[in-house]
Amino acid sequence: MNNRQEDIETWQDLLFTANNDFTSVLILGYTGIMPVSTHGWMFPHTLEKYLKSYLLKNNIMTNKQLRKSGHSLKFLWKKYTDNTNVSTTKPLLNKGFNELIEELDEIKTNSRYKLPSTVMTDRKIYFYIVLCSFFRYLIIGKIKYRASLYGLENHPFFPMSYMPTNYGYGELIVRKMLHFTLEHAITFTVMGSLNSMPFDDYSISNTSIFERLDDCPICNGDGSSVAHLDMVKYYRKLF
Ligand SMILES: [Zn+2]
Predict the structure, then answer these.
(1) Residue 176 Cα, ligand 1 centroid: separation in angstroms?
(2) How many domains is the chain built from?
């Protein structure tokens, strides 16, 4: 038996690696590298780590039990829902989360070597982003979540030394994607189409940081709809 301390993951380790998968999924999606195994496989893997981090931090499961539990998302999700009263106030959003877990559970680890069986539509990506962000909110708490880049402030996004800002490309992409999804309930398809979810039914204040971006056409609009092309131009512009 190997009891070396460094072999035991802490909830912080699991959170860090979940955040790394989460930001990787977003950046691959933004750059259009989607319909291949790496991207598809990381969806369930991200949620597995967020769930394990949450369950470990709240003493619902021990490290030893988590190791034995394998990779079943459905099993971990049931542990979470059976042992916590934390759910959102939006029934349709909760339903979307349940369906997402069911579907992602079908993506097994061997999908690393082939095309994933489940196609991640922009609607599913919406639920994925909100659910992952909800777990970050639950794990680190409201104050830390809102004081940072949706709980990702300390994530290593490295800028190049000659870039005109202190931000790395990764951070700019993640900020923009999370802003649209979590502040405005909008996701983009790889083809540049908008998927606007009904805001009142599918958004929650928990995962918002109420950030207003100076150049965002929605934040700066008068509440009427913004032209599609203006949205895409803003979404794609990094500097
Ligand atoms: Zn905005």
Answers:
(1) 9
(2) 1
Gap between the Cα atoms of 51 and 79, Å rounded:
9
Q: How far is the CA of 186 from the centre of ligand 1 (A)?
A: 10
Residue 1: pLDDT band by 50, 70, 90 thresholds? very low
Does the residue 123 lie in any domain?
A: yes
pLDDT for the residue 100: 95
Q: Distance from the CA of 179 to the center of ligand 1, in angstroms?
A: 6
Distance from Cα 218 to the centre of ligand 1, integer Å? 5
- For residue 227, the CA-to-ligand 1 centroid distance in Å is 14
Residues with CB under 5 A from ligand 1 (ion): 216, 218-219
The pTM of the full predicted model, rounded to 2 decimals, is: 0.90
Per-residue pLDDT tens digits for 111-132: 666 666 566 788 889 999 999 9
| Structural domain contains residue 14 | yes
171: containing domain = 9-158+166-236
Classify residue 51: in a domain, yes or no. Answer: yes
Write out the DSSP string of 32-85: T--SSHHHHHHHHHHHHHHHHHHHHHTTSS-HHHHHHHTT-HHHHHHHHHHH--
Tell me phi and psi for residue 181, to 5 degrees: -75, -45
Centroid of ligand 1 to alpha carbon of 207 (angstroms): 14
Residue 4 lies in a domain: no
**Ligand 1: distance of its center to the CA of 219 in Å?**
4
Helix (H, G, I), strand (E, B) or coil at 103: helix
Summarize the confidence of residues 74-79 as an average pLDDT: 95
